[in-house]
Amino acid sequence: MLQEEDKSIQNYSFNKSERLCSRKSIENLLRDQRVCYHHPIKCYYAWEQKQQSSDQNQIAIAVPKKNFKKAVIRNKIKRRIRESYRLNKQQFLVDFLSKSDQKVNLLFHYTSKKEHTFAVIERAVIDVLKELTATQ
């Protein structure tokens, strides 16, 4: 019983290893120009082969300072995107990719000039994840 609970907790985690921090990887994402867009999120993505079985999908989140001057608002939007990804990655992405030897790097770019609710952001993230699994 306890082990089953631990597995369910692990499915909804978001570890530091899932963050895309490498400047080189981010530049490759932007250079390849593979994009899917669902308002208010534009997602740049790149498929890669796993080097190790422990390799995970990685994400980065960008909210432009040009549109939101206050850091509080930018951080709130980033938290909403991160949370919606964390809740839905297992259902749409991880289960699909567990059968293959590939991983995906994602950059979520918030394009709207106004702050949206969590429900709107979550719907956009789900649509992006569905489109990614459909294209692969």
Structural overview:
This protein has four helices and four strands; from the N terminus they run ααβββαβα. By secondary structure, the protein is α+β, with helices and mostly antiparallel strands. The protein has one domain (35-135): Ribosomal Protein S5, domain 2, CATH 3.30.230. Strands 1-2-4-3 form a four-stranded mixed sheet, sandwiched between helices. The chain is globular. The N and C termini lie far apart (35 Å). 22% of the residues are buried.
List the helices and strands and how they pair.
Elements: H1 2-11, H2 23-32, E1 35-38, E2 41-49, E3 58-62, H3 71-97, E4 102-110, H4 118-135
Parallel strand pairs: 3-4
Antiparallel strand pairs: 1-2, 2-4
N→C terminal distance: 35 Å
User: Which strand order do you get reading across the main beta sheet?
Assistant: 1-2-4-3
Task: Please state the overall shape, judged from the principal axes of the Cα atoms.
Answer: globular
β content, as a range? 15-25%
Determine the structural class based on helices, strands and strand pairing. alpha+beta
Approximately how much helix is present in the residues? 40-55%
Cα radius of gyration in angstroms: 15 Å
Number of strand segments: 4
- Helix segment tally: 4
SSE topology string: HHEEEHEH
Quickly give the CATH architecture: 2-Layer Sandwich
State the CATH topology.
Answer: Ribosomal Protein S5, domain 2
Query: Average pLDDT across residues?
Result: 89
State the major sheet.
4 strands, mixed
Counted up, domains total 1
Low-confidence stretches: none
**Which CATH class applies here?**
Alpha Beta
